[in-house]
TrEMBL record, chain A:
This is Protocatechuate 3,4-dioxygenase subunit alpha. Belongs to the intradiol ring-cleavage dioxygenase family. It comes from the Bacteria. The keyword Oxidoreductase applies. InterPro entries: Intradiol_dOase_C, Intradiol_dOase_core, Intradiol_RC_Dioxygenase, Protocat_dOase_a. It comes from Arthrobacter mangrovi. Gene3D superfamilies: Aromatic compound dioxygenase. Keywords: Dioxygenase, Oxidoreductase. Signal peptide: none annotated. Residues 17-178 form the Intradiol ring-cleavage dioxygenases domain.
From TrEMBL, chain B:
Residues 1-23 are annotated as: Disordered. It comes from Arthrobacter mangrovi. Residues 114-142 form the Intradiol ring-cleavage dioxygenases domain. Belongs to the intradiol ring-cleavage dioxygenase family. The lineage of its organism: Bacteria, Bacillati, Actinomycetota, Actinomycetes, Micrococcales. Residues 1-12 have a biased composition (Polar residues). The gene is pcaH. This is Protocatechuate 3,4-dioxygenase subunit beta. Keywords: Dioxygenase, Oxidoreductase.
């Protein structure tokens, strides 16, 4: 085991800018599973700015466990063979700020834990990426016991819980600023 | 400007940001200098040094409505946050690290090699992880339908590359030195030459996108994106070093740039570290 003792200062982030279109989005990037996969759902919503206007040039990434709560260690996200669940997806929003992922409901990684999907937001005008969590709405007891959610006032807490639509889809809107601004996260060591 | 272009500019905020104004460079400089002076004063008075850009930085006009006004909520990472997606040679072909061989001919411009290491906050190499880059060509033009800068597109240069880091965290790209280009933040606004980098760590909380700059760029002090990092030492971390040992005889010039991600919060197992 190598001794890791040197503490280094992190390199600063910068905005993704407007011109990532040929570089980052890739074919089926938003399909963590094929639409025909049993239990597949659509996760969708709109990214909006401080005036409530949709942001048409942001890019999102999600990272999640599979339906059994297992964290994938498999590579191959960028080639999407429609069979391998890698747990990671990337999508550029459309002209009206709307995004869609095809995925599965993540299972709890431990019994009694509230399942969530990790989301990262990039956009022109956003000088550094933002992290947030998309919680599934069903397990109200687990949600009530969740350490992050219970540290937030009710009006802030609800920005992190997705809405289940009648057809089983998940709706999660992202508001970068203003009324109902989404809670964004920081972590130790950042 | 044709009617068609005007209507597109009006409808698409990609093209003309509603927040953009006809402010002069002098106005932008004064705003930047005032924020920086207040920051230096705060450090002199014992305040913390900043290492990341401010997300609320008004001289970059597009940031005005696109930053959260509430503090980031501090949380301890759990489960999925302690891991990152895995990438490998199934995802990326070795040739994707050479941006000069993607077409039938040689791109125009100064051929460069940019190499360095990706490390975490404890100095551990970030192994077998994805690095993605994109950039303008030697004339300052991106291959992107929204880039309307009237500089030539180079049919032999797309400006997009990927690689997987080695066991020592190293990456290496062969490309063309990008040129500065104009943008619409204020009147006569120009970005310093840069290469965009997208990086993953061992934990998803280390995910970052940034820009690498070239030493001695005369546009540094004028650029509100670069200057959104208020601390000079932190800004310097985005500037590559010219390295003659990377330069090769009659072929390319060379730059070195190491990237440090934020700390990993995972409990490291012996086999992961020593593998």
């Amino acid at each position: 085991m190598t001794e890791a003792t040197t503490k280094l200062v992190a390199t600063p982030g910068q905005t993704i800018g407007p011109f990532y279109g040929y570089a980052l989005p890739f074919e089926k990037g938003h399909e963590l599973v094929h639409r025909a996969h049993p239990g597949s759902i659509r996760l969708h919503g709109v990214v909006s700015d401080g005036h409530g206007e949709p942001i048409p040039d942001s890019m999102l990434e999600i990272w999640q466990a599979d339906e059994h709560g297992k964290i994938s260690r498999k590579d191959g996200s960028l080639v999407r063979d429609d069979h391998t669940f890698t747990g990671w997806g990337r999508v550029a929003v459309d002209n009206v700020g709307h995004y869609t992922f095809t995925t599965v409901n993540p299972g709890p990684t431990e019994e009694g834990k509230a399942p969530f999907i990790l989301l990262t937001v990039f956009a022109r005008g956003l000088l550094n990426r933002l992290f947030t969590r998309i919680y599934l709405p069903e397990d109200t007891e687990a949600l009530a016991n969740d350490p992050l959610l219970s540290s937030l006032p009710e009006d802030r807490r609800r920005t992190l819980i997705a809405t289940r639509e009648e057809n089983g889809d998940l709706r999660f809107d992202i508001r970068l600023q203003g009324n109902n601004e989404t809670v964004f996260l920081s972590y130790p060591g950042a | 400007m044709s009617t068609e272009m005007q209507s597109e500019s009006f409808e698409n905020s990609h093209v003309l940001d509603p927040a953009a104004t006809a402010d002069s460079q002098e106005t932008i400089n004064k705003e930047i200098n005032d924020i920086h002076a207040a920051y230096r004063k705060s450090v002199e008075d014992g305040g913390a040094e900043e290492t990341q850009p401010r997300i609320d930085f008004a001289p970059y006009r597009s940031s005005l409505l696109r930053h959260p006004t509430k503090d980031l909520h501090h949380t301890d990472p759990e489960t999925i946050e302690l891991w990152s997606p895995a990438f490998g040679h199934r995802d990326v072909h070795a040739l994707e690290a050479d941006l000069t061989i993607q077409h039938n001919g040689e791109p125009l411009g100064e051929r460069i090699v940019v190499q360095g290491k990706v490390l975490d906050g404890d100095g551990r190499p970030v192994r077998n992880q994805l690095v993605e880059i994109w950039q303008a060509n030697a004339a300052g033009r991106y291959v992107h339908k929204r880039d309307q800068h009237p500089a030539p597109i180079d049919p032999n240069f797309t400006g997009v590359g990927r690689c997987i880091t080695g066991d020592d965290g190293s990456y290496r790209f062969t490309t063309i030195k990008p040129a500065p280009y104009p943008w619409k933040n204020h009147h006569n606004a120009w970005r310093p030459a840069h290469i965009h980098f997208s990086l993953f760590g061992t934990d998803f909380t280390q995910r970052m996108i940034t820009q690498m700059y070239f030493p001695g760029d005369p546009l540094f002090s004028l650029d509100p994106i670069y200057q959104s990092i208020t601390d000079q030492k932190a800004r310097d971390r985005l500037v590559a070093t010219y390295d003659h040992s990377i330069t090769s005889h009659e072929w390319n010039t060379g730059y070195n740039w190491d990237i440090v991600l934020t700390g990993s919060n995972r409990t490291w197992m012996e086999d992961e570290d020593a593998e």
